[in-house]
Amino acid sequence: MDRLRQLTSHFSSSPKGLAALSKKSPDDVVITMAVRSALTKAKKGGFKDTRSDELLTGMFKAAIAKMQIDPALIQDICVGTVLPPGAPYEARSAALAAGIPQTTPVQVINRFCSSGLMAVTTVANQIRVGQIDIGLAVGVESMTTKSSPDSGSPKLSDDIMGHDVAKDCVQPMGWTSENVAQDFNVSREDMDQFAALSHQRASEAQRTGKFTEIVPVEGFSKSASGERTRIIVDKDDGIRHDTTPAALGKIRSAFPQWGGGKTTGGNASQITDGAAAVLLMRRKKAEELGLPILAKYVTTSVAGLAPRIMGIGPTYAIPMALEQTGLTIEDVDLFEINEAFASMYVYSVRKLGLDIEKVNVNGGAIAFGHPLDKYSFQLFAYTRC
């Protein structure tokens, strides 16, 4: 009954405002570990010869080595992935191969590019309602070994394809970037300026050793003869060091057939392989285990909008999160916004009135790449720096 009263109180009077949210409670959901693999170029980088199940197994092993607890204490695992053929089987078998006990269940979730964040949210909500005390959220994407969503639209019914809005759900992402640039007057020059800033910040952060969240992950390298050997991958390889807006301005349009053709390979995120893991638990349990508390999980907001401009989701979701928590823009010291395309990033920063000195301070997806689901909760690790 005491536990029931605690839960009822928690959900009926959620604290709001910076002062209230800063207070500590034994029932807080906290993060005790947030790690990621290096991000490497799809088909070219460090994980190009590593299968998605092998990458996931490597991430599980790295997380186990870092989490400072017996993996048998993990009561559920949620894996976020966007390109999921075989994902439920891969996730469960990779966990077992890495040393997770048979008694720990595994689930898979897909909410497009926020799948990793939804894995975190799923585990956090399980902890909040008392189903579990400890859970692991993992994200993985091998864009080398799984086809891109833009490689071919799914075959949908005539009713869907004849609907003015529904048909837009299967259009290429590059088209949505051009729509954002055209609808909201985002110039090619501004897109290249923001993209260069992403690379410059990432380059400086890498040079000064800020990416302490990276853990070495085992992968494979294949020789010309086809022989595969085990390797360790531990460094991002997509950053364009010393790039400038002028240099990016010379890159030709990637999608000249749509809109103004402002999106290029230089001001859009790269196709990338990578994985990440976040360990969450009740504060009381973390303190009992003597674990470092890196952060307190507060909320997740999800918003829908027209598919043709899907990239500006942050302009809807961030105000929702602020309202839910009673916070203001000024209360937030750091923002991490996914840089899928510079068009949506530029518009989101401007629409929300954000101080660019507080946004993606160590670079973003334009510099590192965007392994779809994995990038969304890689942001948890980034904000530690």
TrEMBL record:
Pathway: Lipid metabolism; fatty acid metabolism. Residues 1-15 have a biased composition (Polar residues). Signal peptide: none annotated. Keywords: Acyltransferase, Transferase. PROSITE patterns: THIOLASE_1 (PS00098). GO terms for molecular function: acetyl-CoA C-acyltransferase activity. InterPro entries: Thiolase (IPR002155), Thiolase-like (IPR016039), Thiolase-like_sf_Thiolase (IPR050215), Thiolase_acyl_enz_int_AS (IPR020615), Thiolase_C (IPR020617), Thiolase_N (IPR020616). GO terms for biological process: fatty acid beta-oxidation; phenylacetate catabolic process. SUPFAM superfamilies: Thiolase-like. Belongs to the thiolase-like superfamily. Thiolase family. It comes from Rhizoctonia solani. It catalyses: an acyl-CoA + acetyl-CoA = a 3-oxoacyl-CoA + CoA. This is Uncharacterized protein. The keyword Heme does not apply. CDD domains: thiolase. Residues 292-372 form the Thiolase C-terminal domain. Residues 29-283 form the Thiolase N-terminal domain. GO terms for cellular component: peroxisome. Residues 1-20 are annotated as: Disordered.
